[in-house]
């Protein structure tokens, strides 16, 4: 396998897949350089400013849900990134959350965002049996809304003046199991996140 080669072992990279000539990796929690490049990509292309501690929290707590994209296996440049987490929601369902998704403008139009979301959702189902996946996006971001809705996400709530720029957001939910559509009051408690992970 490609990821078993000396180059991958030397650089501690975990190749997830290759799609249409682009390489998708799981974030290397030991790489300060990778962390720095992810921070730069996100801060340069998201409208909402985030503290570096937000990246650190996500990347160090849920590295299994951070994926990066490169033009080639040896390239130092990151052209796409998705950062997510999974937690128990009110102790009755497992909820995935997509916190950040950024593609370098020069690489947009190549379905990188679509592949990253699919990869993330599939991993959430495999690793943590999520019942739903949630995210927020700006009401005016038609491209993002089109992407997520094409993948099955539905608008669940409008959040007024949600962002620092005063723009509204939509909360979007992707139902995975029947629990997602069931009122919380009618759901039995689930095992704790820690118990499920053991």
Automatic annotation (TrEMBL):
InterPro entries: Acyl_CoA_acyltransferase (IPR016181), GNAT_dom (IPR000182), NAA30-like (IPR044542)
Example GO biological process: regulation of protein localization
GO terms, molecular function: inositol hexakisphosphate binding; protein-N-terminal amino-acid acetyltransferase activity
One cellular component term from this protein's GO annotations in UniProt: NatC complex
Family, similarity comment: Belongs to the acetyltransferase family. MAK3 subfamily.
Entry protein name: N-alpha-acetyltransferase 30
Top-level taxon of origin: Eukaryota
Stretches assigned to the N-acetyltransferase domain: 25-177
Keywords: Acyltransferase, Transferase
């Amino acid at each position: 396998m490609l990821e078993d080669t000396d180059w991958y072992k030397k650089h501690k990279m975990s190749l997830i897949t290759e799609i249409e000539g682009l390489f998708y990796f799981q974030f290397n929690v030991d790489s300060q350089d990778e962390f720095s490049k992810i921070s730069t990509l996100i801060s340069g292309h998201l409208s909402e400013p985030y503290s570096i501690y937000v990246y650190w929290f996500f990347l160090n707590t849920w590295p299994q849900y951070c994926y990066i994209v490169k033009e080639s296996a040896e390239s130092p440049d990151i052209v796409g990134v998705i950062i997510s987490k999974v937690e128990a929601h009110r102790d009755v369902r497992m909820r995935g959350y997509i916190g950040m998704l950024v593609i370098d403008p020069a690489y947009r139009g190549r379905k990188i965002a679509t592949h990253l979301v699919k990869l993330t959702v599939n991993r959430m189902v495999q690793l943590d049996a999520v019942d739903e996946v949630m995210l927020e996006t700006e009401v005016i971001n038609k491209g993002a809304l089109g992407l997520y809705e094409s993948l099955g996400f539905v608008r669940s709530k409008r959040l007024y003046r949600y962002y620092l720029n005063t723009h509204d957001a939509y909360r979007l939910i992707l139902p995975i199991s029947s629990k997602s559509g069931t009122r919380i009051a009618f759901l039995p408690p689930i095992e704790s996140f820690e118990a499920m992970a053991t």
